[in-house]
Design a protein that fits this description.
Blueprint lengths: L1 H19 L26 E6 L2 E2 L3 E4 L2 E3 L1 H12 L3 E6 L5 H6 L5 E2 L7 H4 L2 E17 L14 E5 L3 H6 L5 E5 L2 H9 L5 E5 H10 L3 E3 L5 E10 L3 H16 L2 H9 L4
Parallel strand pairs: 1-5, 1-6, 8-9, 8-10
Antiparallel strand pairs: 2-3, 3-4, 6-12, 7-10, 7-11, 7-12
Bound molecules: arginine.
Arginine binds next to strand 2.
Length: about 260
């Protein structure tokens, strides 16, 4: 039921964006080429626009006004394989899919989880990471696992899978624009728990005193790059580039730079 409401809202949002009509088409300069003679490295120039939400360390976050992190570096490596120049657009997380469907951005790279609902509006590349939704609570919390969330107030980043899953609980949901805002609210005792992806959770917990991550996994997920449905040529190129980056160890090197083994 709730899932349906969410996808309906998404539809309305998309329709609204489409009516406004937006964005320049970026790839027009690229000469036409047939699929058979277009290995990733030989794709023609142009700009590859990535939509993200740089509030999600270590995948994407701001250093000064520069977006850095695993996704930013992976996208740069993909763009290089495609012979294109990467441009990063930072936006609200729930604006990324509408930006894709309206052609404002070419790909969404934002630690984005592959879900059935999202597959209705965009395509996803092959997955490049596995992830978990976890629960953050204060150190002295009585919440010890998922079962204890009933009746509690849960903070989430708006439009994320944490939001979608937590919304299924018999609990009050507080939606924040940024994951860190939810964590601050938790540390100030305003909410009881935060449901968020495990890697940003680790970063936030290391930065904020008095909070911890529960051992119990809330959900297992996989991250992939989102691409507009009609952009199947880009999807193929991105998958080819990802496979190469995986095979030659580039992806692992990028991940290792940002995530130290446990
Ligand atoms: N994996 C979650 C999702 O896809 C959260 C992603 C949030 N990403 C971000 N850049 N803020 O919904």
């Amino acid at each position: 039921m709730k899932k349906k409401i969410v996808s309906m809202m998404l539809c309305v949002a998309m329709a609204a964006t489409m009516m406004v009509g937006c964005g320049s088409k970026k790839e027009e300069a690229a000469p036409a080429q047939t699929e058979t003679e277009a290995p990733a490295e030989q794709a023609a120039g142009g700009t590859l626009v990535m939509g993200t939400n740089a509030e999600f360390p270590p995948y994407e976050y701001l250093e000064g006004d520069k977006v850095v992190g695993i996704d930013a570096e992976m996208a740069a490596a993909v763009a290089e394989k495609l012979g294109m120049e990467l441009k990063i657009e930072d936006m609200a997380f729930d604006a990324i899919i509408p930006a894709l469907t309206s052609g404002k951005v070419d790909m969404g790279v934002a630690g984005m989880t592959v879900t059935e609902d999202r597959l209705l509006s965009v395509n996803f590349s092959d997955t490049y990471a596995t992830a978990r939704q976890v629960i953050i609570v204060t150190e002295d919390s009585e919440i010890a696992g998922v079962a204890d969330l009933t009746g509690k107030t849960i903070g989430v980043q708006q439009g994320t899978t944490g939001d979608l899953y937590a919304s299924e609980e018999d609990a009050t949901i507080e939606r924040f624009a940024k994951g860190m805002e939810a964590v601050m609210s938790l540390s100030q005792g305003k909410i009881d728990a935060v449901v968020i992806d495990s890697e940003p959770a680790k970063v936030f917990v290391s930065e904020v005193e008095g909070i911890k991550i529960l051992d119990e996994t809330y959900a297992d997920e996989e991250y992939a790059i989102a691409i507009a449905k009609e952009d199947t040529e880009l999807l193929e190129k991105v998958n080819a580039a990802l496979a190469e980056l995986e095979a030659d160890g580039t992806l692992k090197a990028i991940v290792d730079k940002y995530i130290s083994a446990e």
